[in-house]
Amino acid sequence: MRPEKKPWSSLLCNEIIEEILSHLPVKPLIQFKCVRKEWNSLMSEPYFIKLHLCKSAAKDDLEHLQLIKNVCLESIPEIHMESCDVSSLFHFLQIQTFLFNFANMPGYHLVGSCNGLHCGVSEIPEGYCVCFWNKATRVISRESSTLSFSPGIGRRTMFGFGYDPSSDKYKVVAIALTMLSLDVSEKTEMKVFGAGDNSWRNLKGFPVLWTLPEVGGVYLSETINWVVIKGKETIHSEIVIISVDLEKETCISLFLSDDFCFFDTNIGVFRDSLCVWQDSNTHLCLWQMRKFGDDKSWIQLINFSYLHLNICPYEEKSMILPLCMSNNGDFFMLKFTRNADDEYQTILYNQRDCKSQVSVAPSGSFRTLLWRNHKLFTKSLVIPY
Predict the structure, then answer these.
(1) Burial 251-264 (b: 16+ CB within 10 A, else e)
(2) Which residues contact 3 (CB under 8 A, 6 or more apart)?
(3) What is the mean pLDDT of residues 129-134?
(4) Which residues pair with 123 in a beta bridge?
(5) Beta-carbon count within 10 A of 233 CB
(6) Do 172 and 163 form a contact (C-beta atoms < 8 A)?
(7) Pairing state between β 238-245 and 250-255
(8) What is the mean pLDDT of residues 108-133?
(9) Which of 359, 383, 385 has its CA nearest to residue 88?
């Protein structure tokens, strides 16, 4: 419910002013806070924050999207992050990247982004701490309580980050695969923490995993989703999607199409649809789940040969990464080839006509090849607590 307010102007009613402001990017909105005291208050109102986020998410262009990732530089011992405007990749502009710490906290690295908020994790002797940060507004939450798992001789941990509208909370989910001892099989544990919570909670019913996913979970429809290998023994293993419901804090398995091969599989969200793709070094195949939660609704959207893009099959250290999809179905992709120049290429692929437009990005645009763990985000006014 909107609070009662006096008119801000004798010429325009409050609703019209709010509508105009809701279409503006975050940077000028922050600058406009000092124009009027009422505008400063408006930027913190939950209903206006959600209105502005809805307007930003509805835009069908690249101008509002940013790419962000972790980087590790040999010259700097700490983990940093790097970001750039997605539009600069595909509009043949000079690509300007920005290197920075997570909220000026050097020990943190990025594990997820949702609605303009970033989730960072720091490993400490007792376990892990997380915090939430809005890079655009520079507002950060307090650190979480310590996340700890069963003691063991080795552990792999993966995180996912998303929004639960039923509680109006942003939540982070942690999965750990712990080797208890040399003669005992690994133990799978899963825990969740929400902004404003005092402690981590255990999630029940999580399946036994053979391996953890290579990248963090992706958020869609109040769930976080990972591609994993399920099962204790390789001969009985299968690739499945593990989906965590952030409201119920429960977990289910979604099965892939029978056409899937048992090799490297990636997951992403394009135009509010869950998608998975496989890069075999000769072809790129991408499937879409047309109805989320229905594992019978998979359709193949893309299946093109490397030769179609004038790429030599089995080219050494080459990778194609889908970034986003437009309303008309065009896919924007980034291809990296590890060679003397560390060449990057941008690909605009028209799936209706099976045509592609390939351009070489300026040399030296990026510092390291960690784009597989990239996060796309839209700047917002969302408050991280």
Answers:
(1) beebebeeebeeee
(2) 45
(3) 92
(4) 128
(5) 8
(6) no
(7) antiparallel
(8) 90
(9) 359
In angstroms, the CA 294 to CA 5 distance is: 46
Type of residue at 53: L
* 196 Rama class: left (phi>0) / alpha (psi -120 to 50) / beta: left
Q: What is the pTM of this model?
A: 0.84
What's the pLDDT score for residue 337? 65
Residue type, 8: W
What order do you get walking across the sheet with 109-114 strand by strand? 109-114, 117-124, 127-134, 139-140
Q: For residue 102, what are its two tokens? A: 């997570």
Six-digit token pair at 193? 């923490």
pLDDT number for residue 91: 62
CB hemisphere CA count around 134 (13 angstroms): 20
pLDDT of residue 370: 45
Question: Among 139-148, 231-240, 358-367, whose mean pLDDT is lowest?
Answer: 358-367
**What's the token pair of residue 87?**
């539009």
Q: Dig out the tokens for 213 from the structure.
A: 């996913």
Report the distance separating Cα 297 and Cα 289, nearest Å.
Answer: 5
292 and 221 Cβ atoms separated by less than 8 Å: yes
Convert the pLDDT of each residue in 304-319 to its tens digit. 887 776 666 555 556 7
Mean pLDDT (the chain, rounded): 78
Q: What is the mean pLDDT of residues 84-113?
A: 68
Q: What per-residue confidence (pLDDT) applies to 76? A: 45
Distance from C-alpha of 110 to C-alpha of 277, rounded to nearest angstrom: 23
pLDDT at residue 281 is higher than 60: yes
Please name which of 127, 123, 129 lies closest in space to residue 144, comparing C-alpha atoms: 129
Burial code (b: 16+ CB inside 10 Å, e: under 16) for 27-43 equals eebbeeeeeeeebeebb
Judged on CB neighbours under 10 Å (0-12, 13-18, 19+), 296 is exposed
22 three-class SS: helix
Q: Among residues 126, 132, 129, which one has the least CA distance to residue 113? A: 132
CB 84 within 8 A of CB 67: yes
pLDDT at 362: 54
236 token code pair: 């009985």
Residue 171 CA to residue 164 CA, distance in Å, equals 7
Q: Which residue is listed with tokens 């063991």?
A: 152
Q: Which of 276, 146, 260, 263 is nearest to 218 (CA)?
A: 276
227 versus 84: the higher-pLDDT residue is 227
